[in-house]
Write a structure and sequence with these properties.
This protein is α/β, with parallel strands linked by helices and 299 residues long. The protein has 11 helices and 9 strands. It has a 9-stranded mixed β-sheet, sandwiched between helices. α3 packs across α4.
């Protein structure tokens, strides 16, 4: 796969198709291979040049050799509303995407981000508005520390699954998605994706640094009010990692947003929902003038 060097950070990426650029940004600790091949192919078939990549600190992109607080310490600090020290912020991760677009000679792209990727995508739209044609934020939040929070009962169980040994990693990933995913989670698909990712890279230290970036970055709510590109917010009503209030808060914050919520979606991308999700993403890229009023759909 090709690589881009951006301010000393190496970003592993891939492109497929031709046409209007569509940049996919994956979530916390997830590698670029977490984007299902069929999902990417569906987007290519819709006429997009799809670009996807490893965020810094995961996969084959650069690991930032700076210690970060442990996951339990960071999550405990977040629950108590305390500040977290971080070696970089979400704006730096958004800067990585700008550098990648520069490498590819792309002035602006339609941007789709999942979870942490949604936070990066929002930050990109705020700080580099000319680089974003349309924005899709999936199962994410605004960083306001009040909405889109995980329940403490789920957090305790989650922490036991977040630092697996190589021997238990794949089955722990299945247990994790049973915990945070909705009723449509497919265990076999999770196993296959986890096996692919862990064979590619098993360095889990970067997850703490990525989480530190989330925890230390400022609330985006006020700045999101200035975002003036067609925006789609997708969220699952069964999401137990980023509560549905995170999607609602995001849609409320962005005047030109449309909100679509799925009853059977948790913190996952269920295959059976792809047709409706992809239709919504494509329709959002085709909106010539962003609507000034948020609209809500539940399916």
């Amino acid at each position: 796969m090709p690589q881009s060097s951006i301010n000393g950070v190496r970003i592993e990426y891939e492109t497929r198709g031709s046409g209007e650029p569509l940049l996919l940004i994956m979530g916390l600790g997830a590698q670029m291979v977490a984007w299902p091949e069929d999902f990417i192919d569906d987007m290519v078939d819709r006429g997009f040049q799809v670009i996807w990549f490893d965020n810094r600190d995961v996969g084959l992109s650069s690991k930032i050799p700076v210690p970060a607080p442990t996951l339990p310490r960071q999550l405990a600090a977040g629950v108590r509303g305390r500040q977290t020290m971080a070696p970089y912020l979400l704006r730096d991760m958004a800067g990585d995407t700008v550098g990648l677009l520069n490498t590819l000679g792309i002035e602006a792209a339609n941007v789709v981000g999942v979870s942490l990727g949604g936070m990066i995508a929002q930050t990109l739209a705020i700080e580099h508005p000319g680089r974003v044609c349309s924005l899709t934020s999936i199962m994410s939040n605004t960083g306001d520390k009040r909405h889109g929070l995980i329940k403490l009962t789920i957090l305790r169980r989650l922490l036991k699954l977040m630092d697996p040994t190589p021997e238990e990693a794949i089955e722990n990933q299945v247990k994790l998605f049973r915990l945070i995913g909705g009723p449509l989670v497919d265990d076999d698909e999770v196993r296959a994706a986890a096996s692919l990712a862990f064979e590619r890279d098993f360095d889990r230290a970067g997850v703490s640094r990525q989480l530190a970036a989330v925890m230390a970055s400022p609330d985006r709510t006020n700045d999101l009010a200035k975002v003036n590109v067609p925006t789609l917010v997708l969220h699952g009503l069964s999401d137990r990692l980023v509560a549905p209030s995170g999607g609602l808060a995001t849609a409320r914050a962005i005047p030109c947003s449309r909100l679509l919520m799925f009853e059977e979606m948790g913190h996952d991308l269920p295959r059976s929902l792809w047709p409706e999700m992809i239709d919504a993403i494509v329709a959002n890229t085709q909106r010539t003038h962003p609507s000034p009023i948020s609209t809500v759909g539940i399916t």
